[in-house]
Protein: 3-oxoacyl-ACP synthase
Amino acid sequence: MMKKTDICTVENSKIILNDQIIFETKAQNFSDFAKEAYKTLELNYPKFHKMDNLSKLAFLASEMILKNDDHSKTALVFANKSSSLDTDFKYQESINSKENYFPSPAVFVYTLPNICVGEISIKHKMQTENAFFVLDEFDEEFLNSYAAQILQSGKAEKVLCGWVELYQESYKAFVYLLSL
Structure:
């Protein structure tokens, strides 16, 4: 039987950890919200500023649970509906502009949704499995089933599961930690 230990939700300019508001602001857009959260929560990870918004969302939610503990044996299983569409559009705009044609490699790298789990893995030196699924809707049963297989195989001691959906100014993260 798996245990769900910590739960973090990020939406509506709030970060909630285990039913307690950790951070709240009146920021009207995701970018301002993310910057304020990063600064206020003193996350101190300079790569954060180079990330796309989906990675920032996943990072903020995950960081509330992972903090500074050793998670080298924690796996990641995330999903969303929009994949990396928000970044894909920004990258496409850089290609479409005849006057300002400059396809940015720094943006291109984020045109895959699994990059957000890579960012978390790098920060926490995770040496385990990670997966990112694109689903029509949040499917906790599917994520938990996948996580159970990882835990039962012994490939990881814990699994951080999550739904990280971001498109334009609509965003929601729901992330939780599972163990046996």
Q: What stands out?
A: Helices lie at 30-40, 53-66, 85-96, 105-108, 115-123, 140-153.
